[in-house]
Amino acid sequence: MNDNEKIHSALKEKKNHFHLWDSIKRVLSIVIILASLLLLYLFISLTIQPEVNKTFKWFDSLDYPDISNCSYGKILVQPEANYQTAFSITECRFGFLLHETETEIRVLTRDLFDLTFEKHTQGSDGLPEVSFLPLDLNVESSRYVDLLDLNRGQDGEEFWPRLSKKGQAFVLAWATFKNGNTTISHSLCRKITPLSRFWEKNPSLLEVVQEEIGEAEIWRIILLFGDTSIERIELLNQFIRFQKRFPMSKYRLLARESEQILNQMVAEDDAHIATTEDQWEKLTNEAKVKELIFLLRDQNGFQYSQPGSADIFNDSRKEMSPAARLVDLEYDAVPYLIDSLDDFRFTRTVAYHRDYYFSHHVLRIADCALTILEIIAARSFYEGSYVDYIAMNGKLSDGCMGSIDEEKQIKTEAKIASTRDKVQIWWDEFQRKGEKQTLIDGTLQADNNSLWQASRLIQKYPECFPVLLDTFNKTNNEWLKTEIMNLIVDIDNGPIALFLLEQLKNNPNYTIRVQSASILHKRGHPEPLQQMLSEFITLRDPNRVEYFKKLNKANKDDLSYGMLSPEEQASYDWFWARQSVAKFLLESGESQAIRTVRKSLVYFDASARMDLLDYVDDLLRRMFEGLGSTCDISNGNLTDIAICLEHFLVSCLNDVRVPGLRSGYQHGKEYDDPRVCDMAAFYLWAHWKNKYLFDIEASQTIRDEQIKKCVEIWQSNPNTIIQ
Predict the structure, then answer these.
(1) Of 57, 327, 600, 642, which residue is most buried, by most CB within 10 angstroms?
(2) Model confidence over 21-42: pLDDT tens digits?
(3) 167 near 211, Cβ under 8 Å?
């Protein structure tokens, strides 16, 4: 071997050593990484296990039913079942079967509602109204982990349930742990919190779970206030129990302060001597007011709309409720109601912003006092929701948020003081001026309270009607002008007639003109019908119709007032003016006027025609039910009018356009996105069932055949006699 070969061999051997060392280093690196991961897993497992065990131990100490060895599954409720409404309190239909007999089922839902259902009779499909479908707990829990990764809920969670997704994940984790599957249990717990204590800002699993379940529990306690069968002592015990069960919840402050108020109220209940009916009649008005203010603690109003506010007068006792009886006592009650504007004791009325998340709060006696004062005074004293800042942000902690915001508290107390000042100023003026002059001055103020003041004024002092006309002429608020017109409908004298004629001829607002025409026409004046017919002819502008169609299509998202150009807004004003005048003519009780509108249908697009069809349906309903109408349609020949309205509907049977998304339920039938011709035929059938056959729920093929038959029937026998 020469020298070159020796050198080459040595280099090759050295290179092989380098490769071997490289491989060893890579293997060692992998081993170190795997060992580190294993150690980290063991460390986290050792960290997680005590935290999970601590949380499960706390949860076991609560008095929820034990679900060990209970089947997990879905609660099936038939659509027509009596218990369909049972799920209005919870959207979650998954849970654990606690007990089942031939007659009933008891379940603990995944959001911790303990519900019992009677099975009742079996339906046509052989299934009971309520049944339980078993599912594999481990499979469903694993599926829930995946759903949480996708930020989705499970079937039956159309709205946020009473217990959040994190809370339900914990219930599943607890259940799988109870049934021996710690792997899935820990996976679910990791979705609730990172379970890492490396950073102090991360809450523990116990803190998170107490917050999640605590919110659901405090929510349910608040809802109990609306159930008057539950005594105040039980409400008190619920708040005491909450503080023991959820010591880490942010709602503990709300619970503690509620406990203090209820302690006082329970003691007052025990000391209070109820007044009998015989004793009540002998009481002075002052004593009655004091007793009724005390009884406001039991005012049990209700809230229907959302967002909205609770109506304290929507009490099952109606006019015999304490609030209604205080209104009846009127001004005798005012001084004592003013003193109650800082009374934060609870009533039995629950209000909320939306019912599917926790915005619920209990109204206070202060809320009731202000509402009653506003009705007595016929004016508002606070521009906004007094309920919100008293019931949610008053002397208690920050309502359903459960903590105090000092800056907000200062602003709240300022608002309360301002409202009290406004009430006191009104009361002082009232005592100086008297009721009549106070109402006159309030009406002439032409502000947000003027309509309420005017309504009370004309009700109690009808001779003061000129004040309404002065306010009408004074204000530039078109809404207030329109509402004042509604107040003078029943006043029939010379000055009012002259005022209405002036508005009919010269007011630039079509709404006011049509209102004036309606009132005068009802009183037999000939001018309104002729003017409205003339206006209607000028409103039949084919060019304007085409422009409106383009405008409606191009600016579908900009229909709100103030977002259109002056020319565009003028087109919309023209459209609604034409609709208003057309409706006046339809309801005028004059056959010729109805025929004029029918002959002009060619100028109306699908949406406008549908609007008029609905109006004709309402007219026919009132005529046939003998309810009359605002324009006193009974003055005309009902048979002639009915024939004209029938002909109006028939004239729309060839319009196959669909004006847009529309669904509803009328005359015992449901419909979804109907054509104009469908609604016309539907109303023909609704009012002349012995003459026309039409099923709006049928297929389009059947409907087309029935519409064709309706046309033939009309052509063969156009004269309808009202039966």
Answers:
(1) 642
(2) 666 666 666 666 665 555 544 4
(3) no
